[in-house]
UniProtKB/TrEMBL annotation:
Species this protein is from: Acrocephalus arundinaceus
One of the record's GO cellular component terms: cytosol
Stated name of the protein: BTBD3 protein
PROSITE patterns linked: BTB
Keyword Aminoacyl-tRNA synthetase recorded: no
Biological processes, Gene Ontology terms: cerebral cortex development; dendrite morphogenesis
Length: 524
């Protein structure tokens, strides 16, 4: 018998071996002659009714439960029940489920999610967190073993222990719950204050996809405020990509990173690696002050009084990684020399280093850091000047731009006077969706040439890829200035592609084709 559906697919071939009534009657007569004793044995030798099912596979993709039974808007009663289960998962209320709760969810994924943080059918419990801050969480061995090779070895491996309660003091409860939610619900729920702890849990229990999501979250939220802490953690978790991203931020926004609270939370090894950094883009006096701040907090961690002696003790040899001889003389005289952290001999030798022809030998590194070399993106192919252009009168020149890689805008290159040397006052500003990210008011001197003159922000501003930012400048000075012509909508600058478009903030004529703000100065 060949059975097919109406579309001719999912075919099944059923073959039956049947005995006709006449055959059964004839065999019964023959067997009756041999007597009753042999009757039962002959009957047992009759060919049984049998069949064979052959399923013919097709190339059609199998449908999942959600495809076969699309979700419909549930009735009010069902909606209430679903919300109760979700609240139960969050609060672990351990309420008794309603009858046929399985019918509320059409897919195995949703039914499995009901078991998240639920005592129903739980065959193991975890006491998570340090003493005094523990939380008891239910688990289901099969689900956990499917989601983690560590749990599989723990529950079903050769050395598996049959324990009803497992203590995990080195993982935060919120992080453990986030990992369980991923295993049970296939959902990633990360928060800034728990993502590092979640990454630790994902690494410990070998849940690689959750760990990757944590790293992506950290890279997205990376800034100068948390770069030093994340650098320390990325080395601990052996995440080289995250480590590289941290170094990019620390190098470009070094002074912001060193002044952040997170810098004082790093370990000694990370402190040494930062102080050794050749490309650190910061004044050495800022590096020196940051090291003293770290030493004060480290004294508190070691339960030491924050005296000069103890600060120097916790810094150890890292003190000599600070390139004190490369400071400006004023910074050294008014800062490091009077800090008390240096011995009298060290102070005298450094002063001689600044002034004497025969310089003494120093334990401190005396070679200046290389820092970062800024790149310049020039968006005009030519420039010009006319007798009636370019005039300012306090009006705003503005342009929008976007990049395809993360960069750090350090400042703008601006044109100067076309009528000889002149001094300009420039207010520069960088915005994203109307929010000011950086601004500065400074002066620059124009020598009358068509060159561009750099104007810097106080700190480099981090620019994310594939998002338009607005660069603005208000100039005050000689009204007649050079201006750009033959502007380009896209410029390739090294490995960075920059796109330009007109800005509605521009009230002085600057646009893509011509005007001011000829250059973006950035680190990449």
């Amino acid at each position: 018998i060949l059975m097919v559906d109406e579309k001719g697919k999912n075919m099944k071939c059923l073959t039956f071996f049947l005995m006709l009534p006449e055959t059964v009657k004839n065999r019964s007569k023959k067997s009756s002659k041999k007597g009753n004793s042999s009757s039962s044995s002959s009957n047992s030798k009759l060919p049984p009714v049998c069949y064979e099912i052959i399923t013919l596979k097709t190339k059609k993709k199998k449908k999942m439960a959600a495809d076969i039974f699309p979700r419909k808007k549930p009735a009010n009663t069902n909606t209430t029940a679903v919300q109760q289960y979700h609240q139960q998962n969050i609060n672990n209320n351990n309420t008794i489920p309603a009858p046929n709760w399985q019918g509320l969810y059409p897919t195995i994924r949703e039914r499995n999610a009901v078991m998240f943080n639920n005592d129903l059918m739980a065959d193991v419990h975890f006491v998570v967190g340090p003493p005094g801050g523990t939380q008891r969480l239910p688990g289901h061995k099969y689900v956990l073993a499917v989601g983690s090779s560590v749990f599989h070895a723990m529950f079903y491996g050769e050395l598996a222990e049959d324990k009803d309660e497992i203590r995990i003091p080195d993982v935060e409860p919120a992080a453990f719950l986030a990992m369980l939610k991923y295993i049970y619900c296939d959902e990633i729920d990360l928060a800034a204050d728990t993502v590092l702890a979640t990454l630790y849990a994902a690494k410990k229990y070998i849940v690689p996809h959750l760990a990757r999501a944590c790293v992506n979250f950290l890279e997205t939220s990376l800034s100068a405020k948390n770069a030093c802490v994340l650098l320390s953690q990325s080395c601990l978790f052996e995440e080289p990509d995250l480590t590289q991203r941290c170094w990019e931020v620390i190098d470009a926004q070094a002074e912001l990173a060193l002044k952040s609270e997170g810098f004082c939370d790093i370990d000694f090894q990370t402190l040494e690696s930062i102080l050794r950094r050749e490309t650190l883009n910061a004044k050495e006096i800022v590096v020196f002050e940051a090291a003293l701040n770290w030493a004060e907090v480290e004294c508190q961690r070691q339960e030491l009084t924050a005296t000069i002696e103890n600060k120097r003790k916790v810094l150890g040899k890292a003190l000599y990684l600070i390139r004190i001889p490369t400071m400006a003389l004023d910074d050294f005289a008014n800062g490091a020399a009077q800090s008390g952290i240096l011995t009298l001999n060290e102070t005298n030798d450094i002063f001689l280093w600044y002034t004497a022809a025969k310089k003494p030998e120093l334990q401190f590194v005396s070679k200046p850091r290389k820092g970062l070399v800024p790149q310049r993106c020039h968006r005009f192919q030519s420039c010009a000047y006319r007798s009636n252009q370019w005039r300012y009168r306090g009006r705003c020149d503005s342009i929008q731009f976007a990049v395809d890689k993360r960069v750090f805008i350090a400042g703008f290159g601006l044109y100067g006077s076309s009528c000889g040397s002149a001094e300009y006052s420039a207010k520069i500003e960088l915005k994203r969706q109307g929010v000011i990210l950086g601004q500065n008011l400074s002066k620059y001197f124009s020598d009358g040439s068509s060159n561009t003159f750099p104007v810097w922000f106080e700190y480099p501003v981090q620019i994310e890829p594939d998002t338009f930012y607005t660069a603005s400048v208000i100039l005050d000075g000689n009204e007649l200035s050079y201006f750009g012509q033959e502007g380009m909508t896209e410029v390739q600058c090294g490995k960075v592609t920059v796109q330009f478009q007109c800005s509605s903030d521009s009230t002085n004529g600057t646009g893509v084709q011509g005007g001011q703000i000829p250059e973006l100065i950035f680190y990449a």
